Amino acid sequence: MLWSGWGDPAKAVDLPDPVRKLLHELLGVREPAAPAATFGEVRLPASALPPSVLSALAGVVGAPHVRSDDDARIRHTRGKSTPDLLLMRAGDGSDAPDAVVLPGSHEEVAEVLRLCAAHRVAVVPFGGGTSVVGGLVASRRGFSGVVALDLARLNRLVSVDRVSMVAELEPGLRAPQAEQLLTGHGLTLGHFPQSFEYATLGGFAAARSSGQASAGYGRFDDMVVGMTVATPRGTLDLGRAPKSAAGPDLRQVILGSEGAFGVITSLRLRVREAPAVRVHEGWRFDGFAAGVDAVRRLAQEGPPPTVLRLSDEAETMVGLARPTELGGGLSSDSGCLVVAGYEGGPGDVAHRRDRAAAVLAAAGGVFLGPEPGESWAHGRYSAPYLRDALLAAGATVETLETACFWSGLPRLYDAVRLALAGALGSPLVMCHVSHVYATGASLYFTVVTAQTGDPLGQWAAAKRAATEAIVRAGGTVSHHHGVGRDHRPAYALEIGELGGEILRGIKERLDPAGILNPGVLIP
Ligand SMILES: Cc1cc2nc3c(=O)[nH]c(=O)nc-3n(C[C@H](O)[C@H](O)[C@H](O)COP(=O)(O)OP(=O)(O)OC[C@H]3O[C@@H](n4cnc5c(N)ncnc54)[C@H](O)[C@@H]3O)c2cc1C
């Protein structure tokens, strides 16, 4: 993973001159005054951990698995939000952990937690490092140091129960590794977020992730039937049956807990047969309101496609123009694109496709054939690479997401766009309905604007305005990115004082020394 950007450096893209020209003409984007810092220019504070603690950690996990070199520390600094990338590009390594610890088993994780509690060392569970909400930056106050607990060595497919269609997998598996292991058994998880190439199963569970095929496979938290969690107070083994009436479901306490309650060391996940057929198609709607009505009907009347997303006019226009090319320029009469994808056996795909086609056509959709759908599927993991190129060219580009019930969706959509325009002047704001349910949906916004001399302050103001608008319009502060540090104040409002007290109570019981991800999630 590129330390100051996204992904495989070999896949980096450059912006062709016509695109740069268009960015300048439309948004006033100019080259940044200073080039990005090189790896050697990153300013790192000296590691604060006493040698005695480092050697005690090495005694638990083995010396090669405790690293305090610059390379390991820089690569475990923060996550991959745009502010995170801007800080790294500015050479700011101030949030680096003092050391990176790589445990090889549940027992080693438990022992590391015991040791860190005894020495008052904060522990940040680290999966793929793709958090976009500040979920990987621990507060140092009151601690003698911070370690990143990288779960990469917990990377096995432990077992497959074909009768129950449940697989036990370890949390450090990155999504492609997990899919590859399951493919060997003719199975799939069906979890394909845009961060697919790097994010891990543990991170998906800890942040309640949702993938692009959620209409068919569900969110990641829907897939978790059981888990093992190491806490400073001992081990939790959760999930004896798919559903249970034996009290509140404690799995739900850990899902979304973002490393603040414990470290997930094993996951029992519902799996599906690997699909024999994958088809993606496009539909055109005249406007966003008509498109929203159509995808709502499809979500409510079912059976839904596996992938269902609706881009608004701005996103459709830019997407059809292909942002890395823009050969044909921008056309304002593109309408709104629905991508409907179907995965499964041939009979099932044919049935759901016919049904969806009937609903979409009845709602005013025009069938565009496979090209727009397959083109979306082909480029589905490329946008983060484009973000790096845009940042380098002097544009600020960031995303934010929320969700609400269908009846409130138009108001939420307008409120967020208005807030972003108010904060940023005349940015390009694009949106899509990204995940649908019978009762509501998620809205995912992408914002592009010219960088000011203070891009961090610029985005902080825009994000604050958008978050306030979300709260006022009745949306949730996050549908799938989580809370982290960034959403903590708004999350406190969302769950209220009593909700915050409950979370603090659980935290005190499981982690009395407060070493787990301090400053993240808990109001
Ligand atoms: C370009 C890009 C695209 C993205 N697209 C999507 C998307 O489509 N859908 C989506 O849902 N999200 C998306 N995200 C957000 C991110 O990928 C998800 O939040 C993902 O779940 C994080 O997984 P990770 O393994 O990288 O976790 P990390 O970023 O390493 O950690 C996330 C949080 O979980 C905690 N954690 C990690 N592992 C464990 C564990 N084993 N036990 C306990 N706590 C743990 C961490 O301490 C942290 O608080 C995207 C991010 C980027 C940068």
Task: Give a quick set of tags describing it.
single chain, 523 residues, alpha+beta, seven-stranded antiparallel β-sheet, 18 helices, 37% helix, globular
Low-confidence stretches: none
pLDDT averaged residue by residue: 96
Catalogue the ligands.
flavin-adenine dinucleotide
**Neighbour order of strands in the largest sheet:** 15-12-14-13-17-18-16
Number of helix segments?
Answer: 18
The count of DSSP E runs of length 2 or more, i.e. the number of strands, is: 18
What would you call the structural class? alpha+beta
What's the main sheet like? Answer: 7 strands, antiparallel
Shape, per Cα inertia axes: globular
Distance between the termini: 31 Å
**Proportion of β residues?**
15-25%
Helicity range of the residues?
25-40%
Radius of gyration over alpha carbons? 23 Å
Report on the structure:
This protein has helices spanning 17-27, 51-61, 70-75, 82-89, 106-118, 175-183, 201-206, 214-217, 220-223, 251-254, 288-301, 313-321, 346-362, 371-378, 383-393, 409-424, 455-472, 488-510; strands spanning 66-67, 99-101, 121-126, 145-150, 157-161, 166-169, 187-188, 224-231, 234-238, 263-270, 272-273, 277-285, 307-311, 336-344, 366-369, 395-405, 428-436, 440-450. With 523 residues, the chain is of the alpha+beta class. The strands form four sheets. It has a seven-stranded antiparallel beta sheet, sandwiched between helices. The chain has a five-stranded antiparallel beta sheet with strand order 5-6-10-8-9. A hairpin with a 2-residue loop joins strand 8 and strand 9. It is globular, with a radius of gyration of 23 Å. The site of flavin-adenine dinucleotide has 38 residues, from strand 3, helix 7 and strand 10.
